[in-house]
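Example pasted here:
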Amino acid sequence: MAIIETTGEFSHRFAKWTANEDLRGYPFIRNIHAPFTPVRRALPMLNLALITSAGAYIDGTDPFDLDAKDGDINFREIPVEVEAVDLRYAAKGYDPKAVIEDRNAQIPIDRLTEYQDNAVIGKLNSVWWSLSSWIPNARLVADELAPKLAERLHRYEIQTALLIPASRLCHQTLGLVARGIEASGIPTIMISVDAAETDRVRPPRTGYYNGEYGSVAGKPNWREYQLRVLDEALRWTETFDQPGARKLAVDLETEVEAARGER
């Protein structure tokens, strides 16, 4: 199945786009169908990959290129042992304040490590993948980025990939990446705070809620909120029997918690 179903139309319109940062006139992808790979292992038995497009890179290395019209389709493989203080962010399309304050708001390494320690998941893969938050050329995402990333995941024997976008544009980017990974035979789950955008691009599995760009994995310094987002999304990987999107119950549960004065 094609990652982009209307490649020719996108390329034609993209060539005319004026590359403005507010995405005015940008030709967002519209797909109809979605690939689907069933989950073949229970959560406590799988090797989980984390893919985020917050533009994170290790301090002292080159940042992502945010100036090119096409965007930067390179990715970084970052060991899970790298501490939050050693990360920097090339952010475009979202405010990095939350992720700088608490990495787990966008890159939930600590929360997923807790899941690993408590046998909720089998293991968090030894490296996680960081993508740019600004890749306007969706054709390059489909033709180059997604296949290369899928190949790396297969080398690490990943059983499921969790994708967490940071900006409006990277909801499209990671939606396309999810399609490519799923088509290669690895199940995916994407967390979204922009249901309209993910409905257009149609990643295989999406859990969405009324959150904010830049803290898609949960509000900064609010561990319970982050766990709530991740728990429901990850557990749904086992229950989807066809492509689709489901609304997380995060909003209601958070209102109840706040009303009780538990935060």
The beta strands are 47-52, 56-58, 76-79, 87-89, 123-124, 127-130, 160-164, 188-192, 205-208, 244-247. The first strand starts at residue 47 and ends at 52. Residues 47 and 214 are 26 Å apart (CA to CA). The chain has a mean pLDDT of 94.
